Give the backbone structure.
Amino acid sequence: MSRILIVEDEQHIADGLRFNLEAEGHEVVICPDGECALALMLTDRSAFDVVILDVMLPGKDGFVVAATLRAAGQFVPILMLTSRGRPEDVLRGFEAGADDYLPKPFDLAILIARINGLLRRRQWNDQGQERGEPESAPDMFTFANRTLDFTAMEVRARGESHRLTRMECELLRYLVKNQGVAVSRRAILEDVWGLHENTDTRAIDNFIVRLRKYLEDRPASPTFLLTVRGVGYRFVPDPGGPKGPPLHDT
């Protein structure tokens, strides 16, 4: 049985979610505000398997709650559930550390499918850590004494391990897939986050800054995650090798 925390100040929505999730066999706890959620999540880090987090909360909003949990090393999967579905709000949610984002009003079947997906990913991660997956596992990429473990959503570099949010992991996977080639910010927005509207692409820069802190010896002078002026970014696992052709921004 999975334990799910619902952080929602609208009682009728919270009660409806609890009824349907309990019918699916989950154990559910409700918090009406961000302070309650943080108190529970930071006291017992393994208390819940998924958090359904509303953005518009009294006191600390969902963005602050998600960012606080991630800063404290709490990487429980977070599904943001909110009426704010603008592309910039979606990106802000991902930047705060959300794993998925579903705007209101929502289809219950889609919400349950999203939750089940997050639960499966958490279960796979936990099972992989228990088994001690070999370095040659197919969902890993190793370069320059650094390992990107996409299954565990983790970067291992310079003797340290860094957990990744789902969106950090997907961005890094995309850059690895296109290694040596400059990819535009617009392409990243569309291919990684599925955002096709006119969105401020500078939000991607904040993700790159964090990834550089994990990967680079000197984040201010990167050698692996390079900025291509006027275009976007290029991942170069072998700085001494070919750089690849430029790509015009679109």
Observations:
- The chain is about 40% helix and 20% strand.
- The chain has two domains: 3-128, 133-235.
- Residues 24 and 245 are 51 Å apart (CA to CA).
- Helices lie at 11-23, 34-43, 62-71, 87-96, 108-131, 166-177, 185-192, 203-215.
